[in-house]
Write a structure and sequence with these properties.
The complex is a heterodimer. In chain A, helix 4 runs parallel beside helix 5, helix 5 runs parallel beside helix 6 and helix 8 (164-173) packs parallel to helix 9. By secondary structure, chain A is α/β, with parallel strands linked by helices. Chain A is built from 14 helices and twelve strands. In chain A, strand 4 (128-130), helix 7 and strand 5 (153-155) form a beta-alpha-beta unit. Classes of the chains: A alpha/beta, B mainly alpha. Chains A and B meet through helix 6, helix 7, helix 8 and helix 9 of A and helix 17, helix 19, helix 20 and helix 22 of B. Chain B: Its main location: nucleus.
């Protein structure tokens, strides 16, 4: 039998790029796998270079070259580059232009509002910015961020110099915000937070931990139609008396974190969560004592699945009433609770 | 007395009318005088000696001449008139003459000038009248017209004479005073005669005056003028119909209960209204003048001389006085439809300066606001740069919550960082960063320019900013106090940022690092 000499066909030619990309998706957990994939051949190299969407460089100097290799980068995580300055920021913004959607500058320090302004100006599709730990960032930086009109997720944790003015600018400028984290922004007060709640109606998640806020900012927050996640850790300005004045109810709230709020007891909690029927998760760690009243209050939430009561003083009656809950509780955390033994 | 009072009324109304007031009005007022008994026709001559004298002489004189209507023969020697007045007139005149001649000479001058002006206006009005009444004149039109023409020419000559004499006599001196008096009287008589002849058509109807009230009013007037001392006021007329309109607006004065006075523009704007009779120095206040007089001799050091000119004669002022602005077309002018009178002379002064004068004083802080009254400027300067909270629309607010309330209301407004604040935020970092936020700090108000401005140029700006604003270093602290000032409900959390306390200790290093951060 004679076999015709068939011209050699690369079986991989039958694979479209889409298929290869889908295959590559499965390899995303293992960076070395992708690396070896890319080293196989030129075509694989090209495919992989088009596949990669995020970069997490270890060194900022090599970033430009990496960006040349990977043209379709959507997200850059620079949390491992501590010395990321304005020039580099400018460079990447020039390279990525409008494909860049997410950037994480949380551990980097040496950039200022100048770099941010070039970033925001050139990367018009920017959706997510993480500027946590930007301790030198001021209100003018916040004003620059306000120029990113499509911004949806913003982290400004520990940006201690950003004040109500900057937050106000952001609130007015970034109308599509869905997630705002203002943890430890000590200069932000009721006014700034209230303005965000009033202007950014799309907010789903709001982190206001350790802010010097009081119950005055809560009415507009509770009026948010889509609010699902509210974090009020360590908000010592919120107390029962203030919460008693609340008349609004947030029906969309799913998770609430009130840990380290010693001034909030079950009364305050009940007024805050008035009407929050779909509350899934409640964190009252290190708060006030858990008594039978508190347990009764918690029974109102039929959807409640997870309760964290770490570090709270739980009384016997409280324990009993917790046991009597009919809610479909999945998780109950009582670690470090005094009064709970064994 | 009747005739005298009437004619004096006529002459006063005429004299007080401004150019734009139609003579018809005054004639109608004559009618009103006839009809209404509630006369509050007072005249306040600040210096009644010369003028009142003259005016009062004239009606008395005219009273004699009325039937004959020999107006041309009027400018006879004034001495005759004086005698007549002495015969006629009353004790009031003599009192005036003795008491006022020496004391108030400068005011006589002022009176003279204003009187001149009045006379000119009267002349104008008369001419208007003549033009207007031409059709109505029945009887002996030609003779009347001829007489009036004579009158007019006579008046003109006398006015010119008067002008010359008063120009020469503007410096206060006793001699000139006396010399001008006769001419004033002359004029007054002429004026009165004019009216009498001009109004001769109406002359048949003599106004029923409340003689007693008039005289008493008059005496009250004189005393009051002495008390006021500073301006001379001319009563114009009563605006009874207007009173009712104005009663709705703020002031509820029953109609006919108050009188309206109008000052002249020069008088309102005069810097000094009290003058020393000895040296002629001007003062704004009567008290200052009295203090000055102490230097002119011991007789001024007595408690009587130093005491405030008392008002024992006006135990209660008979009428409420309201003031009108002389500016034509002003809402505060008595001729305006919706006339709103001003309450005191000071109100008149302030109103006139604010509304009808240009604003010559400028605030030194903002270089924007202009004022015509110094007191307004001082009030403004008290709280000029106070508003620190600035919105993108340019509105400034004194409090942060006001700013945020404003921003919450409107769509596109954002908080704006004022320029001086920005310089301060620069050095608030620790000195270790290479690129200081001075760049951020000195970026101006216009955020959009941040994106466009190159970093190089901003470096230069930074250097300037930090050098120029050394005081800015302290404002981070101010920022803190600002933010927390309104919210004292809880003690400051212990986790306070300490960077700001370091900030102004390291200005030098900040400047230093700027140079390394160059492009």
């Amino acid at each position: 039998m004679e076999e015709e000499e068939r011209p050699f066909t690369n079986p991989f030619d039958n694979l479209t790029e889409e298929i290869v990309l889908t295959i590559l998706d499965y390899l995303s957990e293992d960076p070395f796998a992708k690396k070896s994939f890319s080293l196989t051949c030129k075509s694989f190299y090209l495919i992989e270079s088009r596949h990669r969407k995020t970069l997490k460089p270890l060194r900022s100097e090599l970033l430009i070259r990496a960006l040349r290799r990977y043209p379709s980068i959507i997200g850059i995580d620079l949390s491992l580059c501590p010395r990321f300055d304005d020039n580099s920021l400018n460079a990447i913004s020039v390279m990525c232009k409008s494909t860049l959607k997410s950037i994480n500058l949380s551990r980097s320090r040496f950039f200022t509002s100048v770099g941010l302004s070039s970033l925001v100006a050139k990367c018009s599709n920017l959706v997510e910015i993480d500027l946590s730990n930007g301790t030198e960032l001021t209100d003018s930086a916040a004003a620059v961020i306000a120029e990113a009109k499509g911004l949806e997720r913003l982290w400004l944790a520990r940006c201690k110099l950003v004040s109500d003015i900057g937050i106000g600018c952001i609130a007015v400028g970034c109308k599509k915000l869905r997630l705002v984290c203002l943890k430890w922004c000590l200069r932000v007060s009721d006014l700034g937070v209230g303005l965000i709640a009033m202007k950014c109606k799309e907010i789903r998640s709001l982190d206001l931990s350790y802010l010097p806020i009081t119950e005055k900012c809560l009415p507009p927050i509770l009026k948010l139609q889509h609010l699902e996640d509210l974090v009020l850790v360590g908000c010592l300005g919120i107390d029962d008396d203030g919460l008693a004045t609340l008349k609004q109810s947030c029906e969309s709230l799913k998770t609430l974190n009130l840990s380290n709020c010693q001034n909030v007891s079950h009364l305050g909690l009940s007024s805050l969560t008035n009407g929050a029927g779909c509350l899934h998760q409640l964190n009252l760690a290190y708060g006030s004592a858990v008594s039978a009243d508190m347990a009764k209050c918690l029974q109102n939430f039929s959807e409640l699945q997870c309760i964290k009561l770490d570090g709270c003083l739980v009384t016997c009656s409280g324990m009993k009433s917790i046991g009597n809950w009919s809610a479909s509780l999945k998780e109950l955390s009582l670690s470090k609770c005094s009064g709970v033994t064994g | 007395m009747d005739i005298k009072e009437r004619l004096s009324a006529e002459s006063w109304t005429k004299s007080a009318s401004s150019g734009n007031e139609l003579p018809n009005k005054s004639s109608s007022n004559h009618q009103s005088f006839n009809n209404l008994n509630s006369q509050q026709h007072q005249q306040k001559w600040e210096d009644p000696s010369g003028l009142d004298y003259g005016i009062r002489i004239e009606p008395s004189f005219l009273g004699y001449n009325q039937p004959s209507e020999t107006s041309s023969s009027i400018p006879s020697d004034p001495n005759n008139q004086i005698k007549i007045s002495d015969r006629e007139g009353g004790q009031i005149n003599s009192i005036l003459q003795t008491s006022r001649n020496q004391d108030w000479d400068p005011r006589v001058m002022l009176n003279n000038l204003t009187f001149l002006e009045q006379k000119i206006h009267q002349l104008q009005d008369l001419v208007h009248l003549i033009v207007g009444r031409r059709g109505q004149i029945l009887g002996r039109p030609d003779e009347l017209v001829a007489q009036q023409q004579q009158l007019i020419t006579a008046d003109l000559t006398s006015i010119i004479v008067q002008l010359i004499s008063t120009a020469g006599s503007l410096l206060p001196s006793v001699k000139h005073n006396l010399s001008t008096d006769p001419s004033i009287r002359q004029l007054g008589q002429l004026g009165g005669v004019q009216f009498s002849s001009g109004e001769g058509l109406n002359g048949g109807v003599l106004p029923q005056t409340n003689d007693g009230s008039k005289v008493s009013d008059h005496s009250n007037q004189i005393d009051l003028t002495g008390n006021h001392g500073t301006e001379h006021n001319y009563t114009i007329e009563e605006h009874e119909s207007k009173d009712e309109d104005d009663a709705d607006e703020g002031e509820h004065l029953p109609p006919g209960s108050y009188e309206i006075l109008q000052l002249e523009k020069e008088e309102i704007l005069a810097p000094h209204t009290h003058f020393c009779t000895i040296c002629g120095k001007g003062f704004k206040r009567d008290a200052n003048l009295r203090m000055h007089m102490r230097g002119h001799g011991d007789e001024y050091k007595s408690p009587a001389a130093l005491a405030k000119p008392n008002k024992e004669s006006s135990s209660e002022p008979m009428l409420i006085k309201r003031y009108s602005c002389p500016y034509a077309g002003c809402k505060r002018n008595k001729d305006h439809k919706k006339f709103q009178p001003l309450k005191t002379i000071l109100c008149v002064k302030n109103h006139y300066k604010r509304s009808h004068c240009d604003k010559s004083y400028i605030c030194s802080r903002c270089n924007t606001k202009k004022f015509s009254v110094i007191a307004d400027l001082k009030t403004h300067e008290k709280h000029c740069g106070r508003d620190k909270w600035l919105c993108s629309c340019g509105t400034t607010f004194s409090r942060k919550d006001k700013l945020f309330g404003h921003i919450a209301l409107f769509q596109g407004h954002t908080p704006a960082i004022p320029l001086d604040e920005k310089g301060s935020t620069g050095p608030s970092d620790r000195g270790e960063s290479n690129e200081t936020p001075n760049k951020a700090g000195s970026i101006g108000f216009n955020f959009s320019s941040i994106a466009s401005a190159g970093s190089g140029s901003q470096n230069a700006m930074d250097v300037k900013g930090s050098v120029d604003d050394p005081t800015g270093y302290f404002s981070p602290l101010n920022f803190d106090t600002c933010n927390f000032s309104g919210f004292h409900e809880f003690p400051r959390p212990p986790f306070e940022d300490s960077e700001s306390s370091f900030s102004f200790l390291l200005p030098g290093s900040c400047n230093y690092t700027q140079k390394t951060a160059g492009e």
